[in-house]
Amino acid sequence: VTTQYTLTTDADQSSFAQQLAASLPLSFTLADGPSDVALVGGEPGWVERALQRIAAGAIVIVRDPSPVASSSVDVLVGEAGDQMVLAETFAGNPALSQLVERCDDILSAVSTIRMLALGADVGTGLLEQIRVLGALGWQSFELIDAQIAPSVGLVTGRCTRRGRTALVRLQVSVASSPRRLCLRAYSADGALKVDLPDAITARPARVEAVTPGGALILPTIYETAHRATMRAIAGEHPLAPQMASFRADLETLESMLA
Amino acid sequence: MTGQIGVGIVGAGPVVQAIHLPTLARLADLFAVRALMDVDEATAALVGGRVGASPYTRLEDLLADPAVDVVAICSPHKFHAQQVIAALRAGKRAVLCEKPLAMGRDEADLIAAAVAETGVPLIVGAMHTFDPAWLGVLPLIEQLRSNAHTIRSSIVLPFNARFEDWATEVVNQKPFALPDVVDDAFRARMMEFGVLGLAIHDIPIVRAFLPDADPLVTAAAFLEPFGYAITMRVGDVLVDVFGLLQPQWQPQWEFEAISADARLHIDFTPSFVHAGSAVATLTDTKGTQVFQDVPHNGYEGEWRAIAAAVNGDRALVPDPADLVQDLMLALDIADQAADLQITQEVK
Q: Under a CB-based contact definition with an 8 Å cutoff, are residues A174 and A152 in contact?
C-alpha cells in the first residue's frame, strides 16, 4: 500500500506541481488547504516562504533555490532543516549518484575539473556548480581567482576528495539557450564527461568514463531531479539533511563573488 | 473556443495513465480531462478520480456528457473503428485515435466517410509526425522525399514498463511475458503485432517518402523475445524496418532516409516519457543542419494540434485519405511479414 501525501504549492508553481502530481499520482494528490508536503519555488524570498510552510507543519521542497546570504539560512540549519528538502536540477540529477557508485576509482584519481554552466545569471550558475561538486564528494573549495562579469564568470580554485586535491575551474555563461551543465574531469589516465540537461523535460543525462581500456557509458534515466526528489520523499529512504552543506556552499559562493 | 477544452478519454490503460494524462497535465492551460471510460468500473473510478474526471463504463454515457468537447480513443485496437465513428457522430469538436486507426480497409473507409459526413477533425496518435524536430526539418526535405533510395526505421527499446514507471505510477500494469508455447502461429501473430504495435509509430513518416508505396516484403524475421527485422522493396527504394525490445537501458529509436546527395537522421525520444523533441540532422552538399532541443515532444504536439483544430486552425490535421493509406501500408507490411517470417533468437 502506497502512502499518499497531500501536496500544496505557491500559485507560481501550480502548473509545475500539477505535472509532478500527474507523474506520481499514487503518491501525491494536490490539495488546497494544509498539506503534508509543500512545494516552494526557489526564487528570491524562498527562505521566508519555506519557514511559513514549515511552521504549518509541512515537509517543504524548495525547487532550485537561488543564492541568498548564507546567514539567512542559519535558521534552516538544524531542527527546522529536517523538514526541508532541496530539489536541485543539476546536483539532484540521478546520474550523479550512479557516477559515484560506479566510477569512484576514477573520481578519486581526478586532478583537474572543468565545469561549464549555461544559465540565466552568474551567481546561480556558480552555486549550481558548487552543489554538483558537493554531490560528487568534493569539499573545501579554496579560491585562487575569480573573474566575474555580468554575463560570464570564470573561477579557479582547489578542492579535495578523499585527501586528494584537484584543480577546479568553474565557468558560467549567461545564454538564452536551454540551461545545461557540463562537467569534465581528468586523472592521469582517465576522463569523465558528464552532461546534465535542464529539468524542463525528462531528457536523461549523459555520463561517459574513459580509461586506457575503453569507454563506459553509464545507464541514465528519463527522470528529472525534481521527480526523483519527490519519489524519495514518498519512498522508504529518507533524504539526508542538506541545509548545512547548502549553507557552506553559499559561503563558498560569497567568497567567489566578493 | 475560450477556456479549457473538455477531454473525454476512452480506455484507462498504461498509454492513458503514462502518456495522455501527464501530457494533458503539462497542457492544463488548454485542456481539462472531464470524463474517462473503462469497462472496469473500479479502474475508471480510480484513474478518473486522479484528474477529477467523471468515470463511465459505457461509451455512450461518455459521449453524452456535455462537458466533453474532444474524445480520445485509447481502447484495444479492435474497438477503435466503431468508437471513432461514434465519437465523430456525437457532435464533438475533435477526435484523437491511438494507433492503429482500424483493423482493416473496410473499417478505415467507414471512418473516412464519417469524417467527410461530420467534418469533425480526426487525428491518429502517430506522435512522431507531430514532433517539432520532424515538423522543423520537413520543409527542407522535399527533394530527399522524392529521390531517397534507402529508408530505415529502427526501434530498439527496453520494455515499456521501464518508461511507464518514469512517466507515472501505473495501476493494473501487466509485465511483458511470452507464452509457454511459442509456435509458428504465435510468431506470425507477434510479427503482425510488432508491425501494428511498434513499427506503425513511424509508418506515416516512411510514407512521407513513399506516398504511393506498393511494398514487396522480401525477408521477415521474428526476433525473440519480441522484435522483427523486415526488408522490403518499393520500386528502387530499399526499406529496412527493424524493431527489438530487450532488457537493456538505452533506447535507440532512429529513422533515416538517404539519397545520393543527402541524408536525414532522426533520433526520437522514447514513448511515455516527456524528454522533449527528437533530434533531426540533415546533411547534404551544403552542410549539416540540426533540429533539436524543443522542450515538447510529439505527444504534446498532437494535443496542441487538436487544440488548434478546435479553434479553427486545421493546418496539422491530416487528410483522412492519408490516414487510410498509412493504415493500409502498415497492414500490407504486417500481412506479408507474417507470411514470410522466420525466427531468430536473440540471446
A: yes
